[in-house]
């Protein structure tokens, strides 16, 4: 439980959880939403993962992160973020990204496929 409280004590980590509320994002996509170094974002992701709030999955050269489903803590955090003026817009962005991906529309943050 201590790890969870430590993870949620950071506004950056709470924002990352809001971004992952409805979709998964690569580490690069997450880092692109913050004005800090990629190693710093990687450290925040590591804290969230060790607290059991997110899980990372390596696919090719990218690691994609998503919230752990069926987590009471994520459910409670989502409830609080809906009331939070900072978290609410980020959760909406997450939902919009999820809708785009379901429809198969390209995401501006995704790398363009290589053409030969």
Automatic annotation (TrEMBL):
**One short Pfam family name for this protein?**
HTH_20
Which UniProt keyword terms apply here?
Answer: DNA-binding, Transcription, Transcription regulation
- Superkingdom, natural source: Bacteria
Q: HTH arsR-type domain: which residues?
A: 1-87
Family matches, as InterPro entries = ArsR-like_HTH, HTH_ArsR_DNA-bd_dom, HTH_MetalResp_TranReg, WH-like_DNA-bd_sf, WH_DNA-bd_sf
Residues passing through the membrane, by range: none
Q: Which NCBIfam families match?
A: HTH_metalloreg
Q: What is this protein called?
A: DNA-binding transcriptional ArsR family regulator
């Amino acid at each position: 439980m201590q790890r969870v409280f430590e993870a949620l004590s950071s506004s950056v980590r709470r924002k990352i959880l809001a971004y992952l509320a409805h979709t998964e994002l690569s580490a690069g996509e997450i880092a692109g939403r913050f004005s800090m170094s990629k190693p710093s974002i990687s450290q925040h992701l590591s804290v969230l993962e060790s607290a059991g709030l997110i899980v990372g999955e390596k696919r090719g050269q990218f690691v994609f992160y998503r919230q752990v489903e069926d987590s009471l803590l994520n459910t409670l955090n989502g409830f609080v973020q809906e009331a939070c003026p900072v978290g609410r817009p980020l959760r909406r962005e997450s939902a919009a990204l999820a809708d785009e991906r379901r429809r198969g529309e390209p995401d501006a943050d995704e790398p363009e496929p290589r053409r030969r």
